[in-house]
Amino acid sequence: MNSLFRVSERNHFGMIFMTQLAALAEGEFLSVKDAAKGMGMAEGYLEEVSGSLKKAGLVAGRQGPGGGYRLAKGAGEISAEDIVVALEGPVVLVSCLESHGCPVQEKCQSKNLWGFLQKDVLATLRKTKLSDL
């Protein structure tokens, strides 16, 4: 399905995984195998997603029996933006909103629309904490 605004599967599953981790009792770990089974997805794909979250410092991992992942910070300290950026990179609706120049910048009438929309999206992602989900 083509859509102008579409959340990637990677972000969708990453957010679900993070909410599962937020629901754990303190000190408890969730294995990728159990999480993937519960989400109906491949373990390897969830391992890739969890690796990105670990690299960003959002989750901590432990190997061996009773191992898996848990949150590296409190759920109230992790924003939806933190998760999205860890999995996909910065939220930029159109490339001209980055520091890159735009070849039609002087004639562009749509930049303001995308800029306002991006500010709203970012504000919502920043204020929404994992504990709110």
Short description:
This protein is 46% helix and 6% strand.
Descriptive notes:
- The protein has one domain (9-132): Arc Repressor Mutant, subunit A.
- The chain has helices spanning 9-22, 32-39, 43-55, 80-88, 111-127; strands at residues 59-62, 68-71.
- The chain is elongated, with a radius of gyration of 17 Å.
- Helix 1 (9-22) packs across helix 3 and helix 1 packs across helix 4 (80-88).
- It has a two-stranded antiparallel ribbon.
- It is mainly alpha-helical and 133 residues long.
- Strand 1 and strand 2 (68-71) form a beta hairpin.
- It has five helices and two strands, in the order H-H-H-E-E-H-H.
Notable traits:
133 residues, single chain, 5 helices, 46% helix, elongated, 2 strands
Q: What integer value in Å does the Rg equal? A: 17 Å
- Share of residues in helices: 40-55%
Q: What class would the helix/strand composition place it in?
A: mainly alpha
Just name the CATH architecture: Orthogonal Bundle
Domain module count: 1
Dominant shape: elongated
As a percent range, the share of strand residues is 5-15%
**Secondary-structure element order, N to C:** HHHEEHH
Mean pLDDT: 90
What's the helix count?
Answer: 5
CATH topology: Arc Repressor Mutant, subunit A
Supply the CATH class. Answer: Mainly Alpha
The H-level CATH homologous superfamily, spelled out, is Winged helix-like DNA-binding domain superfamily/Winged helix DNA-binding domain
Order of strands, widest sheet: 1-2
Low-pLDDT segments: none
For the biggest sheet, the summary is: 2 strands, antiparallel
Distance between the termini: 26 Å
Tally of strands: 2
